[in-house]
């Protein structure tokens, strides 16, 4: 089977009925780029930039970050690279930032919440990103956005830094698409409000599931609540995709669910545009995608959303569909 998949390295990510999608890779460091090329990914859908901060004993400088982003963008040779701004906090701590100890780190001071309060860190990162955008197709997305004000504030800061750089380099960063992750239920529920102001969404199902079911993603005792096929979650995801499309925006997914074989027909049926996953899943997913018909997948979504009551119900329906 692996040999069959390997033949698809240069094949388009397309359904059996000819609808084009994008299958992308998630990366943490530049070392992951070898696997991205080997898998023939259509894009880097999630560059977890916090690894630049975690693999260092002090804040990475603008120059260090610029070099890292530039290398990834150049390796992709014109294909999109989505860089997520620093997602520190929660389970990812940085000793040199001296963040406060918290009762509930996952509900606390993390990701965009830190970036908006410690703006010099955020502005340094944005400048490095804007400068790197000259070398390919770089996109930026913000993690853990819960309210429209947060997105607007982040966007304003981005525009300010871009203007400063444009004083000496006219037009730099003008084509950067700005998006947000959908990881917080409030953002998913109000996707229609965000869709007007973003260029794209990327659904982070690892956190979205954690927050939707109020179950720590790292706690074995409650791991039964990790339910990607639960109708509550599926409805939320469909709502986000529909809201993006109503405004002509791209809907992507970069959580584990994007590379899941059971989820694939459901996500294709909902019309999800981009699937970003571990590079090791790209070819398997492309192969499966090429055997699926989007109209039949859409019927499956209807059937699941009107009949499934549990995670297990959905699994059974999808398995029958795939047979
Ligand atoms: C997610 O939450 O689904 C996601 C992609 O981000 P991370 O796993 O890095 O939190
Ligand atoms: Mg996340």
Give the helix/strand layout.
Blueprint: H1 2-6, E1 22-27, H2 33-39, E2 43-48, H3 50-54, H4 62-76, E3 80-84, H5 112-117, H6 119-132, E4 137-142, H7 148-166, E5 177-182, H8 185-189, H9 191-195, E6 200-203, H10 205-212, H11 231-246, E7 250-253, H12 263-270, E8 274-277, H13 279-289, H14 294-307, H15 311-322
Parallel strand pairs: 1-2, 1-8, 2-3, 3-4, 4-5, 5-6, 6-7, 7-8
Helix pairs in contact: 2-13, 4-6, 6-7, 12-14, 14-15
The structure holds phosphoenolpyruvate and magnesium ion.
Phosphoenolpyruvate (PEP) binds next to strand 2 and helix 10.
Main location: cytoplasm
Catalytic activity: L-histidyl-[protein] + phosphoenolpyruvate = N(pros)-phospho-L-histidyl-[protein] + pyruvate
Subcellular location: Cytoplasm
Distinctive features:
alpha/beta; 13% strand; binds magnesium ion; 323 residues; binds phosphoenolpyruvate; eight-stranded parallel β-barrel; 15 helices; 46% helix
Shape: globular
Largest sheet: 8 strands, parallel, barrel
Contiguous helical run count = 15
Portion of residues in beta strands equals 5-15%
Bound small molecules, by name, code or SMILES, are: phosphoenolpyruvate, magnesium ion
């Amino acid at each position: 089977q692996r040999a069959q998949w390997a033949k698809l390295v240069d094949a388009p990510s397309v359904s059996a009925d000819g609808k084009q999608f994008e299958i992308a890779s998630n990366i943490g460091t530049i070392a992951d780029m070898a696997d991205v090329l080997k898998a023939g990914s259509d894009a880097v859908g999630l560059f977890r930039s916090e690894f630049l901060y975690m693999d260092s004993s002090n804040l990475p400088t603008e120059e260090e970050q610029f070099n890292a982003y530039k290398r990834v963008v150049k390796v992709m040779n014109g294909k999109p690279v989505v860089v997520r701004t620093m997602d520190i906090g929660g389970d990812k701590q940085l000793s040199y930032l001296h963040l406060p100890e918290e009762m509930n780190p996952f509900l606390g001071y993390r990701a965009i919440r830190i970036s908006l309060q410690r703006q010099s860190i955020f502005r340094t990162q944005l400048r490095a990103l804007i400068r790197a955008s000259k070398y390919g197709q770089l996109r930026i997305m913000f993690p853990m956005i819960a309210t429209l004000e947060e997105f607007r504030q982040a966007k304003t800061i981005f525009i300010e830094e871009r203007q400063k750089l444009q004083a000496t380099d006219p037009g730099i960063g003008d084509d950067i698409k700005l998006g947000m992750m959908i990881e917080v239920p409030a953002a998913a529920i109000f996707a229609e409000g965000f869709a007007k102001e973003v260029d794209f969404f990327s659904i982070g199902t690892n956190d979205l599931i954690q927050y939707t079911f109020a179950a720590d993603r790292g706690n074995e005792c409650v791991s039964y609540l990790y339910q990607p096929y639960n109708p509550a979650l599926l409805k939320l995801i469909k709502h986000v995709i529909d809201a993006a499309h109503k405004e002509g925006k791209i809907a992507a997914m970069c959580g584990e669910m994007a590379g899941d074989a059971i989820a694939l027909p459901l996500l294709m049926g909902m019309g999800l545009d981009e699937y970003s996953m571990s590079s090791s899943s790209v070819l398997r997913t492309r192969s499966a995608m090429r055997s699926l018909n989007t109209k039949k997948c859409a019927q499956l979504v209807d059937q699941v959303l009107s009949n499934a009551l549990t995670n297990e119900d959905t699994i059974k329906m999808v398995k029958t569909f795939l047979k």
